[in-house]
Amino acid sequence: MLYFAYGSNMDPDQMRSRCPHHVVVGLGALREHRLIFPLNSPRWGGGVASVQPHHGETVWGVLYELTPEDMKGLDEREGFLGPGNQHNVYDREHVTVELVRPDDGSFPRRVRADAYIARPSNPSAPSRRYLDTLLAGARHHRLPEEYIAVLSAHVVVAEPG
C-alpha cells in the first residue's frame, strides 16, 4: 500500500527501524496543503507535523510502498486505532499526491496514498531535534531546495535551560 510521509518518517533511519520492508517509490507533492504543527509530542519535545488544506501551498514528501505488517506497525506508532476511533492521535486518510520524481523512471502521475493527519491537541512549534529530523529526510530524498528553505525557516521551541 502507498504511504505519503511528510514529517519525521521521511528520515531514512527512522523508516528503516519503523518499517523494515518499505520501498521508496519517489517524491510526492500534496498540492493545496500546508505543513502545520498542531500536536505537541513529549517524546519530541515540541510540535509534530500534520497537513491541512491551504490554497496555493504544497507539502513535499516521500511516497513509500509498505507491507501490511509495516502499515500495522506504523498505525500503532502514529496512534491510529481504526477509522473513526475517537481515541486516534492521527487519522489515516487517503490523499491524492503528485508522484513527481518516480524512482523507477516512470512518468509523473497522480496517485492515491495514505497519510496520517493529526487531531489537533496543544499546538506547538517543533523542537530543534524534530525539525532537524525533517530536514535530514528532506535532504536525503532531495526534496526541492525551495521547500527545504521553507522547512528551515520554521520557528522552533526554546530549549530548556
Automatic annotation (TrEMBL):
The active site is at E78 (proton acceptor). Keywords: Lyase, Transferase. GO terms for molecular function: gamma-glutamylcyclotransferase activity; transferase activity. InterPro entries: G-Glutamylcylcotransferase (IPR017939), GGCT-like (IPR013024), GGCT-like_sf (IPR036568). Substrate binds at Y3, F4, A5, Y6, G7, S8, Y130. This is Gamma-glutamylcyclotransferase. It comes from Eiseniibacteriota bacterium.
